[in-house]
Amino acid sequence: MPKYADCVTSMGNFTIELFTEDMPITAYNFIDLANNGFYNGLHFHRVIKDFMNQFGCPHSRDPNSKVAGTGGPTPRSTYEVPGKGTITRTGDGSIPDEFREQNCPRLSNEPFTLSMANTGQPNSGGSQFFINTVHNSFLDFWDKSTPSQHPVFGRIVSGNDIVTAINRAKGDRNDKPVTPIQMISVTIRD
Predict the structure, then answer these.
(1) Which segments of the chain are extended strands (E)?
(2) CA 125 to chain centre
């Protein structure tokens, strides 16, 4: 059964359906962080028009942080995944790449899907994710046209207009919104 994340931002609200059955390690990582208030008060630190909205770096609590985009969860922290047990994040707070497992569903980076951000190295996703605003199939983990591999673990089910408005926000030369866009709260529900 999927879970939902109700996201309240300074620009309006949207709801995410989390793919807890198809991508449990990634989805329950997000759920654990949300349930612990990790995302509350952070800012979208990278918004690229007609591409994506990126969020989830703890350094973005300060919307002017020069290191926003480089942080993650507490190193070696743990969370529970039904049917898989306890997952321990690595020394930098990253989680395992479940898309490397055999029979992982091929969920494409279509518009309004939620995808795990990473450094490009294996097992480097943590707390940061992005919302695709166009079909970014070149980011699919099975697409070998680029080295980028970003697994989809949810989709927006309401508030597409808010996601689009965030994507249209004026950005600076580093793609950071000029007017900060804050995630006020993320609440998980069934």
Answers:
(1) 3-9, 12-18, 46-48, 52-55, 78-81, 85-88, 113-116, 129-132, 152-158, 183-189
(2) 9
In the numeric block, the tokens 């898309």 are attached to 99
Whether residue 12 contacts residue 25, with contact meaning beta carbons closer than 8 Å, is answered with no
SS3 110: coil
pLDDT in tens, 55-103: 999 999 999 999 999 999 999 999 999 999 999 999 999 999 999 998 9
Which pLDDT band holds residue 168 (cuts at 50, 70, 90)? Answer: very high
Q: Which residues contact 156 (CB under 8 A, 6 or more apart)?
A: 14, 15, 16, 17, 112, 113, 114, 131, 163
Q: CB of 186 within 8 A of CB of 40?
A: yes
H-helix segments, the chain = 24-35, 160-167
Apex 46 CA angle, 175 and 170, nearest 5: 45
Q: Which residue matches tokens 């993320």?
A: 186
- Phi, psi of 166, deg, nearest 5: -60, -40
Unique residue bearing structure tokens 């800012």: 43
Is the pLDDT at 1 greater than 90? The verdict is no
